[in-house]
Amino acid sequence: MIEPNRQGEVWVFAEQEDGTIPDVVLELCGKARALADQLGVKAGAVLAGSDRGSLPAQLIAHGIDNLYVVEDKRLEHFQTSPYTRIVCSLIQKHEPQIVLYGATALGRDLAPRVASEMRAGMTADCTDLQIQDVTDPRTKQVHENLLLQIRPAFGGNIIATIVNYDWWPQMATVREGVMPLQEPDLARSGQVIAEPVELDDSLFPVKLIERHIEPRTVNLKGARVIVAGGGGVGSRDSFKLIHELAGAIGGAVGASRAAVDGGYIGKEHQIGQTGTTVRPALYIAAGISGAVQHRAGMEESAKIIAINTDPEAPIFSVAHYGIVGDMRKVIPLLVKSLKER
Ligand code: FAD
């Protein structure tokens, strides 16, 4: 366990694969920048790999002041032990007060191992982060500028705010797409600091024999328009109507969990708490009740149109436009009118 350093930086673990940084890391750089400004400290990031390429410029343009780089040929692909060693030794050396990770497969692997090694706290799958003074109910002591780690809990029925009074650094993984991706500022400057971290061969017990990358067939995150179908669609056959409307309007196809569980469409299309979080310009929800777990993944959409037979369906509370009606009748009419335009 390490002592709190109130002047410590706000860090992002800049995961990368094949020289590409996922959007969630860049989203976190913007958030780290905002949190660091509020705390009056610098924003930092840790980048590890075999070749930094042009990634430092990208991270700095998204808000990072100090970038700590560890380069080693053996770090070409992620492995848990050496990456844990790198992050822990840099935390010990620089004492950041906050460390953020994307809630990706890699982040979900690395963050808890770092937390365990550092005897620090960690909250998984946050959807928001804020800084606030908090009173410890046990001691009545006021802790200034703690990180509020906000995430859905109990199946999404409540939003929990988690604070960490005793364990430092404060660490969280954050879901992709819940924080806005800020425009890069190419005029920003920052420091790139090469970090010599000793990594002996015993930290690389895994030998990579072959990599197989599944092509990404569904790009819900990048879609400007999404047409999503739910349990109310009723069958895999009727789900063709959702594909038809998406085709006519040039959108991607999304789904609620009921539609996925019903076998109408694959899990990769699921939107919500345990699916993808999206923020398209237009989201059309057909036959979706609007359960809190679904809304968690789509309610930040710029415009929402809901089609539902039940006028009391909760989806109407987040919709900008509502159509009370049978989607099997409404969608063909919409497709017809779109095709006539
Ligand atoms: P239903 O609840 O079956 O609702 C169907 C809706 O369609 C109703 O409102 C009905 O009025 C309407 N309808 C029926 N017929 C028609 C018709 N012909 N035309 C128009 N409307 C019609 N859910 C998700 O979506 N995403 C998640 O990521 C997710 N994660 C979860 C995680 C946990 C831990 C838990 C506990 C649950 C999760 N759920 C998730 C499930 C969630 O609670 C709901 O069960 C689910 O969202 C319901 O899907 P639905 O609204 O499509 O189906």
Automatic annotation (TrEMBL):
It holds the Pfam family ETF. PROSITE patterns: ETF_ALPHA. Belongs to the ETF alpha-subunit/FixB family. Its cofactor is FAD. This is Acryloyl-CoA reductase electron transfer subunit beta. One of its GO terms (molecular function) is electron transfer activity. Signal peptide: none annotated. PANTHER family: ELECTRON TRANSFER FLAVOPROTEIN ALPHA (PTHR43153), ELECTRON TRANSFER FLAVOPROTEIN SUBUNIT ALPHA, MITOCHONDRIAL (PTHR43153:SF1). Residues 10-208 form the Electron transfer flavoprotein alpha/beta-subunit N-terminal domain. It comes from Novipirellula artificiosorum. Binds 1 FAD per dimer. Keywords: Electron transport, FAD, Flavoprotein, Transport. GO terms for biological process: fatty acid beta-oxidation using acyl-CoA dehydrogenase.
